[in-house]
Amino acid sequence: MRILTLPAAVLLALALAQPNATAEPAAPAAAPAAAPAAGPVGWAAVGEGTTGGAGADEDSTYVVATRAELAAALENGGNPDEPKIIHVVGAIDGNEAPDGSLLDDQDYAPGWDLDRYMACFGPDGTEWSDDHHPWCDAQSRLRTTGSGAQKQQIQLTVPSNTTLVGRGADAWLRGIYLSVRLGENIVVRNLHLEAPVDHFPSWDPWDGDNGSWNARFDAMSVVTGSRIWIDHCTFTDGRYPNSGAREGFHGEPVEHHDGLLDLEDGTDFVTISGSHFADHAKTLLISSGDGQGDSDRGRLRITLHGNLFEDSQQRSPRVRFGRVHTFNNYFTGSTDDPDYPMTGENAGGSDYFLGVGVESLMMSEYNAFDVTGPGASADLLVANYGGHQFLDRGSWFAGRPVDLNALAERKFDAAAAEARAEAEEAGTEPPAWALLTFTTDVGWDPADAYSYTPLRDPAEVRDTVLARAGAGRAPTA
């Protein structure tokens, strides 16, 4: 690790250097391709604003190229919450051991065998039994201990008052579970984040109609964080798409990925801008459950703008409780993509872009949607999970105006009717949300909280996002 002696403001400009800037820590970076944005637009700009490590001392400015260096920089010489600026060069792998080798499942849990683990659920995956095979008890313990060991290795926690920024166009965090726990005033910019591969996913036969795999590690998660700005980052499954996973139960691949970005447990004042979310099943979750109202209600104030959601099958985002403003984003997918096809409710699937959950207060403005392939339709744009409030202004599907409010109302009415019918059949009371009436009154207006100027032409939104979203792209002013 090298501690830089340049002033912090100069280093922040260097971090967003032109794409051919060197990835060697000791070499100077090239001039920036464009001036970085002065600060976030949206909820992260409200109140105290979000400045990350601005004002960091010279000895709290780092250039890192290995996992060990990154971990040490986050500790900041024993003062983790003091302002710090950390520049990432090249690719850092969360599975990197001190000797530089990459750890795998046998390093975390020698003897672990996914095939043997699956066999303990029986041929149809319906019920675990230690009696199915003599190795079942051991495989159960290995899955638990291996998962814990992998978590300890790959999880790196970002403390308060941190700017974590990639230098040049090729700064990667691969297989790192980047987390914020109670941290505030954090900036993450110009980084590629490749989602961790969970070597020890768990199978739950009772999750959904046919059971489900559950992976543990997100590319990034924020739990009870505040004043967070995520800008010009690329989140992706990268080298490990679901289509490359071995076949699990019922002909479906084993799921080794959790979310790309989760915002949970009262996280507040967040802006996600100019970023690229690609090639993933369940992308961006806001609030971890319907029962989290005590921690989430009145919080989860989040702005998403200028982002590209590409082949993101679900949760772009899925929202509970939060006052979420999503504007000038571009959403694109295909019903016949070989790795992440989108299949909507009208075709017997469950994929969607915007998920309206319990007590969510989502405001959508001037977003552009394109879906190609057989059966592609606006049905994929919105799904309902118990939310009765939603407002859209001015969005487009396939370049033409689309009435997302009518679609959201139809989806809510169908979900509420189904919930009431299920309750009647079971002889129980329906959930409270199923007795409500859909409304476009979300109870707040972003313009009352912060200043913003949306683009109002679908081609301009699409072209601007495609040109600028993601790591290594020129940031917007």
UniProtKB/TrEMBL annotation:
Database matches in InterPro entries:
Pec_lyase, Pectin_lyas_fold, Pectin_lyase_fold/virulence, PEL
In terms of superkingdom, the source organism counts as Bacteria
Tell me the first and last residues of the signal peptide.
1-23
Which keywords, in A-to-Z order, does the entry hold?
Carbohydrate metabolism, Lyase, Polysaccharide degradation, Secreted, Signal
Q: Name one Pfam family in it.
A: Pectate_lyase_4
The family this protein is said to belong to = Belongs to the polysaccharide lyase 1 family.
Name by which UniProt lists this protein:
Pectate lyase
